[in-house]
Specification:
Bound molecules: pseudouridine-5'-monophosphate, manganese (II) ion
Number of strands: 11
Strand content: 5-15%
Distance between the termini: 24 Å
Order of helices and strands: EHEHHEEHEHEHEHHEHEEHEHHH
Shape: globular
Mean pLDDT: 96
Low-confidence stretches: none
Helix content: 40-55%
């Protein structure tokens, strides 16, 4: 393994025996949810992966190393400290060289997971093109990294705080295959349905077959598998849109990497915790699907 990478014991054993591994991000813990629900969720996600046959690899940067798999103390630190850096791919060298503890975003996690040879990654929702990006140029590095990392990424679509049609256009421009798992509309994170059609797949085999075809053809982007929030936990878009507008207004002074965490936090407050429940439910569901995909990929 690369000298900058430290594997947890269970990931090390999984690598040795070619067992299925599922990558998990840590920004959702450090910057996406409040304490202590973030820690509880991080631990529960790892258990869901194990219960579904995959070894969880929560990824972050700590003490100048890329950590593939975190122990409880490190998860606790990520969840409770306000000194944790938010690391997209471009912050990786800074975090490594300075020794700062950093949580990896979708982009940072994809890069590190790929270095470790992991093929499947489950997150909550990917970043995308922000509203007003025509002027601000605020487009998440998640999209760029997805376009150059040959993995399967499971997401509940993209947050409706983004410009969703522009995000879909950008995914097309970057030639990233997008599939709906048991849905034919692009899910909006908190909301199960949308007005944006996507191609539907109804089996795990369907996903892994296409991913293998990509690999055989030398297509080196991620495949995006969109898994809508479980219907019983969703907040329909008609209900969400008002809260989103308000959150965007209240945070309009912010720029750069602060925007996404601030918006998520405001929305949790405005929905009196309902959005947090939806967020937890969707990421749990994504981890379950991700683990099943990792198992299927490993068995063939
Ligand atoms: N989805 C969540 N919670 C989050 C994020 C996504 O449910 O906290 C994070 C992810 O780590 C994603 C990041 O990569 O937000 C995108 O940030 P930005 O828009 O600044 O690129
Ligand atoms: Mn941004």
């Amino acid at each position: 393994m690369h000298k900058l990478i430290v594997l947890s014991q269970e990931v090390f054993e999984a690598v040795q025996h070619s067992r299925p591994i599922l990558a998990l991000e840590s920004t959702i813990i450090a910057h996406g949810m409040p304490y202590p629900q973030n820690l509880e969720t991080a631990l529960k996600l790892e258990q869901i992966a194990r219960d579904n046959g995959a070894v969880p690899a929560t990824i972050c940067i700590h003490d100048g190393k890329i950590r593939i798999g975190c122990d409880r103390d490190l998860l606790e630190h990520l969840a409770s400290s306000d000194q944790v850096l938010k690391a997209g791919t471009r912050e990786i060298p800074e975090a490594l060289a300075s020794g700062t503890t950093a949580a990896t975003t979708v982009s940072g996690t994809l890069h590190c997971a790929n270095m470790a040879g992991i093929k499947v990654f489950a997150t909550g929702g990917i970043g995308g093109v922000h509203r007003g990006a025509g002027l601000s140029f605020d487009v998440s590095a998640d999209l760029t990294q997805l376009s150059r990392t040959p993995m399967i990424t499971v997401t509940a679509g993209a947050k409706a705080i983004l410009d969703v049609p522009a995000t879909l256009e950008y995914l097309e421009t970057l030639a990233i295959p997008v599939y709906g798992f048991c849905t034919d509309t692009f899910p909006l994170f908190y909301s199960h349905f949308s007005q944006y059609p996507i191609r539907k797949l109804v089996s795990i085999d369907g996903i892994t077959t296409r991913f293998k075809m990509m690999q055989e053809c030398g297509i080196t982007s991620s495949m995006l598998v969109c898994n809508p929030v479980p219907i019983e936990s969703e907040i329909p878009y008609e209900e969400m849109s008002g809260w989103i507008e308000k959150a965007l207004e209240e945070n309009s002074h912010l720029r750069g990497p602060e925007i996404t965490p601030a918006l998520l936090k405001t929305i949790v407050e405005k929905t009196q915790g309902r959005s947090l429940k939806a967020n937890i439910a969707l990421v749990e569901s994504n981890v379950k699907l991700g683990a099943m995909i990792a198992v299927n990929l490993c068995n063939e």
